[in-house]
Specification:
The protein has 20 helices and 22 strands. Strands 2, 3, 4, 5, 8, 11, 12 and 22 form an eight-stranded antiparallel beta sheet that branches. The radius of gyration is 22 Å and the shape is globular. The chain starts with 19 loop residues before the first helix and ends in a 5-residue tail after the last strand.
């Protein structure tokens, strides 16, 4: 049986090896992430602890592509701050990683403003168009039209990425969009070399991309996957980025670009209006911000499920001496806390502007204690015994970037168009490859989605609503160190960020966070997924005897980008996931 929600709290005993002395007198965690509704845009800054008073004196960027990292570093060298650099990195990723993100999608941006000593969360998640409703993807017989929800203009929500660029640049940047978007514009116009990663991901969506003439023209070579080294040019996207650079928000959501978007979408079955675009706003929300003594965990609030789930899992772990367990016992415990956090994700979480999310109850010590007491130390809990709803759908390809500048400004941003190459539909005359984030809603509670999962009413479709997401940009801060961490990976994002966070809390090097073998449990389906080779044969046997049903993911997954600022050594290190092609650069010579 699942525990009831309570709001009572008592002291936690979360004592990772790295912070044993720091947290030995740990007080009750202070949750500063309320569940109040946010208008658009709304300022909800969260003040930082005094441990950010120093500055690193070095800059670092970790991103999923070397060209994007270089674009961000160039902006820092031109006098930009971390927020300017993050825009440059994100814009470049949208060009050279059309399979993962772009201005046809959206994302979450966790910022730390060193001058104001405040954390800020920018919600640039896509929104459902006004024509959308709860049964938008249902056929006459009540079945879900999966093709309409996944492919083409009908699958696209109103993009938020361009609005995030304009918003962050205007409020937090030092440079104009003309400067921060310059590299992306040049890359789109001049082209970039297709690599094997591009070719692999196009393989997932080749048939869908072939269905849409504009996408096939731009992203294929004679209707087939381009060879490695093929120069892929996107001149229309360069023009759209120039319009955004010159005119800000209006350059994308109004005027010629908006008209081309409307014409392309609506002539291909979509139902967008000019008001859908013109009225889009990012929302500045209060991040999930929990303190364990002097240790702070700052992460994404709803409509992300990530921050709440991360803190729930850390709270449950506080009831166990997880650091000294054998590898099998520790894997069992981590699997069980994942199972319970993902179960709550399936029942309670959605867009806080449309549903009441019981944040305080979910993050309370009472709930952590009840869940911890329900964990059998030697036997897996069948997920159906937790009496929850069925699960939620989410695309598996995204991107992440982490940025730190010499003054201590930070960005952890996770961006997405959902499936690789999104909806596979490019709006003619714009170069904008649109997302298929509408499939992140529950098209029909209790009906299976593309991954065989089902959702609940909290994530049902509604006009103007933002779909639930697992994107989990995170910052972990203490007087000794600060970690910036995040990864793509759909529903597995949360478990990956947890595993990376635990590596950090045990004093491991940043390269260990991003390279650690990964496993995942998301409540339903009731399987312990893992990367090939994550467990030894003996460990697999032991976990199976404990009742876990193991399932290989068939491949490595994730693409974590991380930065560590060691304040004791005044040293910055960074790492890009070896599973990808990204790069991490630390520049000790960066000057304003």
């Amino acid at each position: 049986m699942r525990p009831m929600l309570h709001t009572a709290s008592r002291p936690l005993t979360l004592i990772p090896l790295l912070f044993a002395l720091l947290l030995s007198a740990c007080s009750t965690p202070q949750n500063t992430a309320g569940a109040e509704r946010s208008s658009a845009p709304t300022s909800a800054p969260t003040s930082a602890a005094s441990s950010h008073n120093s500055a690193p004196g070095q800059a670092a960027i970790a991103s999923a592509h070397p060209l994007a990292t270089a674009a961000g570093m160039a902006v820092l060298e031109q006098g930009g701050n971390a927020f300017d650099a993050a825009i440059a990195v994100a814009a470049s990723l949208g060009v050279v990683e059309p399979y993962s993100a772009g201005i046809g999608g959206g994302g979450f941006w966790l910022l730390y403003d060193a001058k104001a000593a405040q954390y800020r969360f920018i919600d640039a998640r896509e929104t459902a168009p006004a024509a959308a409703h709860r049964d938008y993807y249902l056929n006459a017989d009540g079945s879900v039209n999966r093709d309409k929800a996944v492919n083409g203009a009908t699958a696209a929500a109103i993009p938020g990425q361009a609005a995030a660029f304009a918003y962050i640049s205007e409020r937090y940047g030092e440079l104009s969009l003309k400067k921060t978007l310059r590299a992306a514009i040049q890359q789109a116009r001049d082209g970039f070399a297709v690599d094997e990663h591009y070719r692999m991901l196009m393989g997932y969506r080749l048939q869908a991309v072939r269905r849409y003439e504009e996408s096939a023209r731009l992203f294929l070579d004679n209707n087939d996957i381009p060879a490695a080294g093929f120069e892929l040019q996107q001149p229309e996207l360069a023009q759209t980025l120039e319009a955004l650079a010159n005119n800000g928000f209006d350059g994308f959501y109004k005027g010629a670009v908006a008209q081309r978007l409307l014409s392309a979408v609506n002539s291909n079955g979509g139902e967008w209006t000019a008001a859908d675009l013109a009225n889009y706003r990012v929302v500045e929300r209060e991040p999930v911000h929990v303190r364990y003594g002097a240790l702070e965990v700052i992460s994404a609030p709803p409509p992300s499920s990530g921050g709440i789930a991360i803190v729930q899992m850390l709270n449950m772990l506080s009831h166990f001496s997880w650091q000294t367990m054998t590898p099998v016992d520790q894997t069992h415990l981590l699997t069980e806390v994942m199972r319970r956090a993902y179960r709550d994700r399936a029942e309670f979480l959605g867009d806080p502007d449309f549903v009441d999310v019981p944040v305080s109850g979910l993050l309370s010590e009472a709930r952590a204690q009840a869940w911890a007491e329900s964990i059998d130390p030697v036997q897996a809990t069948p997920s159906l015994d937790l009496a929850g709803p069925k699960n939620l759908n989410e695309g598996f390809h995204t991107t992440h970037l982490s940025v730190l500048d010499k003054d201590g400004n930070m960005v952890s941003a996770t961006l997405s168009i959902n499936l690789p190459f999104g909806s596979a539909f490019t709006a003619a005359g714009t170069g904008i490859l649109l997302n298929n984030e509408m499939d992140d809603f529950s098209a029909k509670p209790s009906a299976p989605n593309a991954y065989g999962l089902t959702g609940n009413e909290a994530n049902a479709i509604a006009a103007g609503k933002r779909p639930l997401s697992s994107m989990t940009p995170t910052i972990i801060n203490s007087p000794q160190q600060t970690a910036i961490i995040g990864t793509p990976g759909g529903s597995r994002i949360i478990s990956m960020v947890l595993l990376g966070t635990l590596e950090h809390l045990q004093g491991k090097a940043v390269s260990d966070w991003v390279s650690r073998p990964r496993f995942h449990h998301q409540y339903l389906p009731d399987v312990l997924q893992h990367e090939p080779g994550a467990f030894s044969a003996q460990q697999e046997v032991a976990l199976t005897r404990m009742g876990h049903r193991l399932q290989t993911a068939g491949r490595q997954y994730g693409n974590m980008q991380a930065i560590l600022w060691d304040k004791r050594k005044q040293q910055v290190t960074a790492a890009s996931d070896p599973r990808g092609i990204g790069s991490a650069v630390v520049n000790p010579e960066h000057k304003p």
